């Protein structure tokens, strides 16, 4: 889906405006007008001032209150309300009841919060709005003359379907998001890397949104972050999400595309990218496969590569005067990058994306399956625990393969010559646990593709003797996996390695396979 953002101005006659204005004004209390004598009014929080909370629905025209608060304010389901936020901003919405909401809070989605210039935890005032007249004219004023990726008539493609058959009160000057061709990536679309996400928001989002924080403390904000990890772990996805959430200009540089046979052209391409980002600051420059344009200079034989590395070093050193521009580099071979780039002031921090754990894989699976038609027997927890070594791209492939297995089952009842498929067949299709199990055998983990991987079937019962050794292995390896909360409670770190020694044939390899089998872990044997 793509968001097209347009400013809509609702024009109406002067008569209509004069009829609405009195209803939007609240009379001041008697004490505030000085009619209460010399007695000062007591400071008491007004019942219509509420704390902003996240809305469960994502409708740009709806806010939610608790049923008790609606009764207190004499509001009914579907009433129009006037919301007043910061910087003299206000807007009009429809109010609905939400029993799970606290009486002191109001559920507002992200778009309405932006129109009111408020954030979660801020206070807004709610007023009954009365009848809002219908707009007689709609003027569509695009933010840009051309919005990338959008062709055709803006009104017919996006706004007509948004307003048709829907009651949507709107305020002059409001901005709202309309879903179109594709949807930009958001933080909620990324799972399995919360720790890295928190560090990235600290390193990138803060300098772009609030540079005054660093200026107040007298330090220079970070200018570069290097992301590294196995292919498919979400490096590019995170960069796009940060750019979308911060509203920053996003400039993508694919390493191999910068290279050129013409002398000086590769460096010129790099300079143009930084100049373009500077013109559109705040901006994020994302360099994918940075190891291809910034290899170690002492190990490369090409003169072009050496000049390109020197140019990149010069550009990153000159970023201090470029305003709000941040560089994100991504690679799966961090040790191949020139060492001069990997210092503070250029790439200030290096973040290892790594392979997600069980909870991370479960989070990713829930994201990929939220729109899938799943059978009642599907157990995502079991899939997450059995998909060791899988990164985000592998789990996406797993879901796709499971869906293909489901389609393959129904191929004998589907007539490919027909233009449409029978609705009964479509209703009977859903992805089951068996489809996922079959797909698991077809997908290989990206991080383990260069090695031979197996899940052994050796059990403790298959090993005779060595009881003390088996007990020690259970304490060192199985306990941290089965009871991680106890290790965390006592501040203990699990063991990172075990050394087996003994004469040939005493069972060292079999013990290792048994441990892997009991943990349901992948077994990689290196001779």
UniProtKB/TrEMBL annotation:
UniProt xrefs under InterPro entries: AAA+_ATPase, AAA_ATPase_domain, AAA_lid_3, Asp_de-COase-like_dom_sf, ATPase_AAA_core, ATPase_AAA_CS, CDC48_domain_2-like_sf, CDC4_N-term_subdom
A single GO cellular-component term on record: VCP-NPL4-UFD1 AAA ATPase complex
Keyword Nucleotide-binding among UniProt keywords: yes
Chain segments carrying region Disordered: 14-44
GO biological process: autophagosome maturation; mitotic spindle disassembly; retrograde protein transport, ER to cytosol
CDC48 N-terminal subdomain domain segment(s): 49-132
Keyword Nucleotide-binding: yes
UniProt keyword annotations, A-Z: ATP-binding, Nucleotide-binding
Pfam families for this protein: AAA, AAA_lid_3, CDC48_N
Biased composition (Low complexity): 22-33
GO molecular function: ATP binding; ATP hydrolysis activity; polyubiquitin modification-dependent protein binding
Domain (AAA+ ATPase): residue spans on this chain: 221-357
CDD domains: RecA-like_CDC48_r1-like
Family: Belongs to the AAA ATPase family.
Stated name of the protein: Vesicle-fusing ATPase
